[in-house]
């Protein structure tokens, strides 16, 4: 089934004569424009433009298609504008991507107060970066920076990856083992405990283990649960270990429901970034979301604008 946005992109390329011009007019990335065009060409079964240098010259079939869709698209855009004007207030919709646990810990509590519509998307960081570049997402929260020239990243906080456990874990025994017998015996001590992990995502555990023991863990967690917040709730039962970002369990550690077992020989920290396109129609809404994140997480540390 054809995507109507493909036709809107096709019209913008026809009008501006370049992929860059179309991207600027639609406030999406050039790769996103190229994807829409190639998808439409594959759908209709023929080329719509000849590429001459940077100019996009419509083919004869491209001209026929433009004449067929230009007026209907314009009418749809007029309907959209009139519909917006008929409401008391134009309510924009922005799409934001982040991991599930970050959403639960930060933005979830403020969703009902937002003065605009919001679509939250969960996924892997490379996928979210790609969707941001293509105009599918408007803002992402990520510990990884992309390389697209269309995206800007702003560091706003950091997370430390720590080893935590239930309140019944004998932390004194672990510390004594680490101090008197060394890192190898400490590793063996840890491996004797029950471990929690999440479905398909062991990156935090791998990073922590490699940094402290020089290799990936040679064991699998005993219990695999849906997400990191599930792990924290399970640890409240009193036993078990897990490696997770500190901001997710800050309150539980302070209340004594979960124990900080070890920060590691070297602290493992990730910088958290806002990622957004350099050109956007939703700057005020994006700034509002950024402000909420700074309110919740900005006290962790001070980071410069990158």
TrEMBL record:
<dbReference type="InterPro" id="IPR036390">
    <property type="entry name" value="WH_DNA-bd_sf"/>
</dbReference>
<dbReference type="InterPro" id="IPR036388">
    <property type="entry name" value="WH-like_DNA-bd_sf"/>
</dbReference>
<keyword id="KW-0238">DNA-binding</keyword>
<keyword id="KW-0805">Transcription regulation</keyword>
<feature type="domain" description="HTH lysR-type">
    <location>
        <begin position="2"/>
        <end position="59"/>
    </location>
</feature>
<keyword id="KW-0804">Transcription</keyword>
<protein>
    <submittedName>
        <fullName>DNA-binding transcriptional LysR family regulator</fullName>
    </submittedName>
</protein>
<dbReference type="Pfam" id="PF00126">
    <property type="entry name" value="HTH_1"/>
</dbReference>
<dbReference type="Pfam" id="PF03466">
    <property type="entry name" value="LysR_substrate"/>
</dbReference>
<dbReference type="InterPro" id="IPR005119">
    <property type="entry name" value="LysR_subst-bd"/>
</dbReference>
<dbReference type="InterPro" id="IPR000847">
    <property type="entry name" value="LysR_HTH_N"/>
</dbReference>
<dbReference type="GO" id="GO:0003677">
    <property type="term" value="F:DNA binding"/>
</dbReference>
<comment type="similarity">
    <text>Belongs to the LysR transcriptional regulatory family.</text>
</comment>
